Automatic annotation (TrEMBL):
The keyword DNA-binding applies. The active site is at residue 9. InterPro entries: Recombinase_CS, Resolv_N, Resolvase-like_N_sf, SSR_resolvase. Residues 138-157 are annotated as: Disordered. Keywords: DNA integration, DNA recombination, DNA-binding. It comes from Parabacteroides faecis. SUPFAM superfamilies: Resolvase-like. It holds the Pfam family Resolvase. Gene3D superfamilies: Resolvase, N-terminal catalytic domain (3.40.50.1390). This is DNA invertase Pin-like site-specific DNA recombinase. Residues 1-142 form the Resolvase/invertase-type recombinase catalytic domain. The keyword DNA-binding applies. Residues 138-150 have a biased composition (Basic residues).
Length: 200
């Protein structure tokens, strides 16, 4: 079987682009994706807690996993290498669309996967370090960091939803239920209600 794997980190991102890239790649290779696995979860989450972890238990020898790039499999070297190692040991092929890697159980594949994952992790660390240095420099120069006082906050997400909140309260819905329904945390709802005494 050929599996297409698509992952985005947040629900603000779309899986459509990745799916399109994989479908285009498969068509060029005269392949058909038999099953799709899509998830919205951070790459830092352990593979075992992701759909990818469940998938690796189902894939059989000779099956193929197609994804847009190795970074979709994980966000650090050890995570990606661990997953690829499992695939290689079980003769599962991993194909990536953007890098055009065809990874199987051979030494070239292992070296290539290691080199890519290592460079990707180094780049992320460099970006993080550059960001920290830039923030430290701005702070030293006297630039105020963070959201300006009185600026837009999470509470503004609830602006204009007073009547909806009031209706849910009248229906005896819990604050936890209301906050989940409105897509905010309980503290944000509590603070908003405190700012609007007519709701409390």
């Amino acid at each position: 079987m050929i599996y297409g794997y698509v992952r985005v980190s947040t629900d603000k991102q779309s899986t459509e682009n990745q799916r399109f890239e994989i479908e285009k790649f498969a068509k060029a290779k005269s392949m058909r994706i038999d099953r799709w696995v899509e998830e919205t979860i951070s790459g830092t989450t352990d593979v075992a807690e992701r759909q990818l972890g469940r998938l690796i238990k189902q894939i059989r020898k000779g099956d193929m996993l197609v994804t847009t790039e190795l970074s979709r499999l994980g966000r650090n070297l050890m995570q990606v290498m661990s997953f690829l190692h499992q695939c290689m040991e079980r003769d599962i092929f991993v194909l990536t669309v953007k890098e055009r890697y065809e990874l199987g159980n051979n030494i070239n594949s292992k070296i290539l996967a290691f080199a890519f994952s290592l460079s990707a992790e180094i780049e992320r660390n460099l970006i993080s370090q550059r960001t920290k240095e830039a923030l430290a420099r701005k702070k030293k120069e006297g630039t105020k960091l963070g959201r300006p006082k009185g600026g837009k906050s999470e509470q503004y997400k609830l602006s204009g939803k007073e009547s909806q909140i009031r209706k849910l309260l009248e229906e005896k819905k819990t604050r936890l239920y209301i906050s989940k329904k409105l897509g905010v945390n309980r503290q944000t709802l509590r603070d908003f209600m405190r700012m609007n005494p007519e709701l409390d």
